[in-house]
Specification:
single chain, 87 residues, alpha+beta, four-stranded antiparallel beta sheet, 21% helix
């Protein structure tokens, strides 16, 4: 894993420790989703540095171990590669 990630609680841009995230703290309608299919979606966690304004979004950790959800992505989405990007 890349240690230069905001997930460590230290901003990779300005070095501040004033980093906050919204994992599990908000009502469902405050969270962002990426639809995979009509009934499946990724949940997006947001990390912000309130010192410099840098922010980064990640898919929720739970979604990364959800094999059914990942299988749906593999079924529905494009596998990204240089070849598909050149289409
Ligand atoms: Zn920062």
């Amino acid at each position: 894993m890349n240690v230069e990630t905001i997930k460590t609680g230290k901003c990779p841009v300005c070095g501040s420790n004033e980093v906050y995230d919204n994992r599990g703290v908000s009502a469902a309608n405050h969270r962002k989703f990426i639809l995979v299919s009509a009934v499946k979606s990724f949940t997006v966690d947001v990390y912000v540095c309130i010192n410099c304004g840098y922010f980064k979004e990640f898919l929720r950790d739970d979604d990364m171990i959800n094999e059914k959800l990942k299988a749906k992505v593999k079924q529905k989405w494009n596998k990204t590669s240089e070849k598909t990007n050149a289409r």
